[in-house]
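Running this now, will post back.
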Amino acid sequence: MQLRPRHYILLAIIIAIFVFNIVRHRHDARNAISNTPAPIIITTPRLNTPAWAAFDHAASLRDAPDSDFQPALKDLNQLIPLDPNQNDGHIAAIKGCLTWLEFYRQGIAHTSNDPQWKSRSNHHLDDCVKYHLDTAA
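Update: finished.
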């Protein structure tokens, strides 16, 4: 069988598509490695205010029954407006952490189809306690 010019053109197109797919695959693999999120580096000092102390107490009771948890949550909600660092954005941080705490408690009361919810909530709440900062903001 003799190759005609159209056969050479088809072979060139097939080889070009093959090379394109190899280059695209390598490019995607390189981007997958570089797109991993950077670790969170906290440069602000950990605040020790009454509101954060109340948050730490409520977070330590996050798996406790409602009879133990609700008084701690009530104390926290009363202390948030009294926080002396209101102008520094710390009120927003503590409210963000409080939202995660409430989400965690709601997830315990109502089971979810998402198996990762508890580990995500635990990780976030542990960071809130560790840094006294809403790490999602």
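The CA atoms of residues 45 and 131 lie 8 Å apart. More later if anyone needs it.
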